[in-house]
Every structure is written in C-alpha cells, then in structure tokens.
Design a protein that fits this description.
Layout: H1 3-31, E1 40-45, E2 51-57, E3 65-66, H2 71-75, E4 95-98, E5 103-106, E6 109-110, H3 111-117, H4 120-129, H5 135-147, H6 153-159, H7 168-182, H8 192-218, H9 231-240, H10 252-265, H11 272-281, H12 287-298, H13 306-317, H14 323-331, H15 352-367, H16 374-387, H17 390-394, H18 401-412, H19 419-439
Antiparallel strand pairs: 1-2, 2-3, 4-5, 5-6
Helix pairs in contact: 5-8, 7-8, 7-12, 8-9, 8-19, 9-10, 10-15, 10-18, 10-19, 11-12, 11-19, 12-19, 13-16, 13-18, 15-18
The protein binds acetyl coenzyme *A.
Residues 83, 302-304, 306, 330, 338-345, 395, 397, 400-402 line the site of acetyl coenzyme *A.
C-alpha cells in the first residue's frame, strides 16, 4: 500500500465514522424524550403559611403534572404516594393510555388499528424505532431478528437444574437472568448501538427461552426454531412440534390469533413490571438482568399472573348458577378475594385490549367449532352481572386484558402455566424499549423513593442477660395453606 492509498483509506474511515456518529445522534434525538419547558406554576402553602411555587409540566396528552423535583430543597417536605398512584417517574414517547376514555396508543397509533393491520414484528419495529417499517425495513429487521433467535447451547444446560413440574415463570426468571452471564463483560449500556443490539437479542431469543421453559416443565425434548417460520409461528412450533414428526405444521389461523395477543400485550407504559425494569436499569445494571426483574414483577396475580388466576377462578365457579356467590365474595371486604381480570389502576373504562380479546375469543371458538365452553359461558355471564352491579359501577371496575386472554389461550391449547409466560414474551419488547429510552437520557437518576419512617427512634443496646424474651417465631406455627413452603425442606 502506498502513502496515497493510506491517506484515502484513513479519509474513508473518518467519513464513515462521521456518518455513523450522525446516524447515532439522529436516532438518539428521535428516541430520547425531553422534559418539556414549563411556563405555568402552581402555589403550595406549607403548614407554617409559607407559599412556594412549583412548575407545572404539560405533556402532549394526559393530565398535567406538578414538578416536585425541587420540593425538598424549597420546603423541607417530601410527598407520600404508596404505589405511585399519582406520581410520574419519567418522560416517555412510547405508549399513552387514556384511562377515562379506554384508549391505548403505541407511538401514537391506536391499539385497534395496530391489531387489525400489523403483525407483532411490525409492533416490535414500531416500538424500537418510532415508526412502522417499510417493506424493505421489515425484511431487514426480520432477518436481523431471525439471526438472533438461537440461544447459546450452554444456556440450555440451565434448564436441567429445574425439576419437571417447575412453574415455567420460575424457569423464565432464572434463565432470562442467566442470559446476563452470556452478555455482560462486552455490554456497554452507555453505547447506543449496544443498547439496540441488547434489545433485539432479548426480543428475538425470548420465544426459544419460553418454549424450552414449557418443554422442561413437561419433560419434553427441545425443538429449535426454523428460519422459514414467522416469529409467532416459531414460538408455537418450538412449543408443540413433535421431534419425531417431520410433517408437524403450525396452524396459520391460530398463529395469527396468538400474534394479535402478543400485539395487545407489547407495552403498557409505566405498569409494575415496566417500572421494575426501569428501576433495576437505573443502577446501570445488565439489561437482561433488568428484564428478569420485570418477569418476576409480572408473575404476580395482581399483574400479569391474573390471566392464570382468571381460569382458576372460573374453574372454582364452575357454572353460571354460582356466579352470584362469587360476585358477593368479591364485594365482601372481609374476604381477600377479588374478581380476577377485573379492575385496573389506569383504566376507568373498558380496557380496549379486553374488547379485542373478547372478539378473538369468538373467532377462535368459531374456527375450532367449539359450541359449548364452560370458561366462555361463565366468563361472559360473570362479566354481565359484574358490569350491572353497583359495587363495580361505582368503582369503575371493568374487565382488563387478562379477563378473556386465558379463555382464548386455553382454547388454542396453551397450558395455563404458560399464560403469563406468553405475556412476558410479548412484553419483553415493551420492557426493553422503555429501558433503552431511559438509558439514552443524558443523565440517569437512580430510582430511589423516600419513606415515612414510623419505627423506633434511636435507642441504646442492653446486655443480652438484661433483655426480655420477645421473639415470636411464626415459622413455629403450622401454615394455613399446605401449599406453602416447609422451611425444613431442602
Ligand atoms: N374485585 C373486587 N374489587 C376490586 C377489584 C376486583 N378485581 N379491583 C379493585 N377493587 C376495589 C378495591 O377493593 C377498592 O375498593 P374500595 O375503594 O372499597 O377499597 C377499589 O376497587 C379500588 O381498588 P384498588 O386496589 O385501590 O385499585 P388499584 O388501582 O390499586 O388496583 C388492580 C388495580 C391491582 C388491577 C386491582 O383492580 C385488582 O386487584 N384486580 C384483580 C387482578 C387483576 O385482574 N390484575 C390484572 C391487572 S391488568 C394487568 O396487569 C395486565
């Protein structure tokens, strides 16, 4: 190589560097929301009569917010809001819910329009890049995703540590967390390119991770994905294919239904699991570990575990005749029972996803020629009774996305223990784009709420022989439910 060639190539490299930098900056600008400037202020009168002014932030939609970031330095007070019922923790451009109207938008598009016109891969692209893909974009993105579908063979060894019969969500928490061991030393979360790669990796790999969780729980051999199948077809294929039957075919109609279910669950702004992912990520933790934290949070019956709990509830009701007793129990403040799949922190109207899910239910039952189904019969009758009951009307309690999702998934042939896993699979895109949005901000505040301390004030230690017996060990007692864990069991 002569000196002219060296100069030309170093110019070419510099040009490429410049173009790459410009591309990163452009994407960063599109995908990083900024806190709006405030022109309005509100006044807060403190108990001593002093008045302070706080800025009011106005977003593109939704209620205005009082900016309390400087409240403590201005007043010496914190705010108290368990469950963050009135507290905004971030600015975001990804998803918007109007709970009063029952409206849900992903990047400005109505959920109904997206469910009718797009597939789940389009939605992943939309959430990741802020726009729907062109034909060319889609082909490229699809190929990128497919190239990332396989998991490291050694990750598969982790599944061997779980006993058959283990809940697939328990396996998901463990295995997705373990993914961080495969992508840690090389991951620089401050690098926009690496953040995008991490996002594509988790979304592409999660169908295989979820399908193996199921096959492990069932003691079945692993099936690998196929490039010729779509994202959702691949998941169904890896779940249900018989390795001894080369002719196994995924049902196209049911795959489309599942694809719509994934769209409905893809993101839902700052819900418990997404907030968990953001808080975990705020300490600059590994993104795959953050997603595992989100999966753990999703599992509970008050959140994504409700779809499984709805079917348990319908099983317990068993017949339309028992609905009134169930509704009375749900209203009884002395019972811990709630109507599962009913109510929502944000929706004070019909959850638009529940409406689409209900239609999907009828489509699937028609397609499969199911005329009489206890879950659907009892589910629909229970919904009707609850929606005309004063208790539910007064509290604006409507069916949420999980009310009908279990009924559809059961009809498709998905086992109950996989319902929340499917939710996690779909929500992995939402979690990771929310994480990426936060990580792309120029300064990241670690998530760290305050508390109202009501314990002892400082006290002196007494010598052990002077202390009175006070230890009441509850684990000496017999647990009410035999389902609970036994502390003496390894
Ligand atoms: N059945 C009976 N009563 C209910 C229900 C229900 N499903 N949901 C709420 N209520 C009542 C509460 O008892 C409370 O009554 P009160 O004012 O007399 O005390 C009132 O409605 C408000 O309820 P909160 O618990 O304050 O509402 P919050 O916003 O904190 O809870 C939640 C929302 C957790 C979803 C709740 O409605 C619930 O437990 N639903 C059942 C579980 C469920 O379906 N979860 C899935 C949610 S969607 C998702 O995560 C995908």
């Amino acid at each position: 190589m002569n000196s002219g060639q060296i100069r030309r190539s170093s110019f070419a490299e510099k040009d490429k560097e410049k173009m790459d930098k410009a591309k990163i900056e452009k994407i960063q600008k599109i995908l990083t929301p900024s806190i709006p400037n405030s022109s309005k202020k509100c006044k807060l009168t403190l108990p001593d009569g002093e008045e302070i002014e706080l800025p009011v932030l106005i977003g593109k939609a939704g209620p205005p917010m009082i900016d309390i970031r400087n409240l403590y330095s201005l007043s010496g007070y914190f705010t108290f809001d368990p469950g963050f019922t009135c507290t905004g923790s971030c600015v975001s451009e990804i998803t918007f819910i109007d709970g009063e109207k029952g409206e849900l938008l992903y990047r400005g598009y109505k959920i109904q329009d997206l469910a009718n016109n797009c597939d789940f891969v389009d939605i992943c692209y939309l959430l990741l890049y802020g726009a729907l893909p062109s034909e060319k974009d889609k082909i490229k993105f699809d190929e990128t995703m497919k190239n990332e579908m396989l998991v490291h063979e050694q990750l598969i060894s982790f599944y061997k540590g779980f006993q058959s019969g283990a809940h697939p969500m328990a396996i998901m928490v463990g295995v997705v967390g373990a993914l961080s061991a495969f992508f840690h030393n090389d991951v620089d979360v401050k690098d926009a390119i690496q953040r995008e790669i991490a996002a594509i990796r988790i979304v592409a790999k999660i169908p295989m991770i979820a399908a193996i969780a199921y096959r492990t729980a069932m003691g079945l051999p692993i099936v690998y994905p196929k490039k010729g199948l779509s994202y959702t077809e691949n998941f169904l294929y890896m779940m249900f294919a018989d390795p001894m039957d080369p002719d196994y075919k995924v049902d196209k109609f049911l795959a489309e239904v599942l694809d719509k279910i994934l769209i409905l669950h893809a993101d839902h702004e700052q819900n418990a699991s997404t907030a968990t992912v953001r808080i975990a990520g705020s300490s600059i933790a590994n993104p795959f570990a953050c997603i595992a934290a989100g999966i753990a949070s999703l599992w509970g019956p008050a959140h994504g575990g409700a779809n499984e709990a709805v079917l348990d509830m319908l099983d317990q009701i068993g017949s339309v005749d028992n609905i009134s007793a169930c509704v009375e129990k749900a209203k009884d403040k002395n019972s811990n029972f709630r109507l599962m799949g009913f109510g929502h922190r944000v929706y004070k109207n019909y959850d638009p996803r529940a409406e689409i899910m209900k239609d999907l239910c009828h489509d699937v039952f028609n397609y499969l020629n199911i005329e009489d189904n206890m879950y659907l019969n009892v589910g629909m009758a229970l919904e009707k009774i609850a929606l005309s009951d004063k208790y539910f009307i007064d509290r604006k309690l409507y069916p949420n996305v999980d009310y009908y999702s279990g009924i559809v998934l059961d009809a498709i042939g998905i086992p109950k223990s996989m319902f929340t896993v499917i939710f996690a699979l779909a929500r992995s895109i939402g979690w990771i784009v929310q994480w990426r949005e936060m990580m792309s901000e120029s300064s990241i505040k670690i998530g760290r709420p305050r508390q109202l301390y009501v314990g002892h004030t400082q006290r002196e230690i007494t010598k052990i022989e002077e202390r009175v017996d006070s230890y009441e060990q509850l684990s000496d007692l017999e647990p009410k439910s035999k389902k609970g864990f036994n502390i003496h069991k390894p």
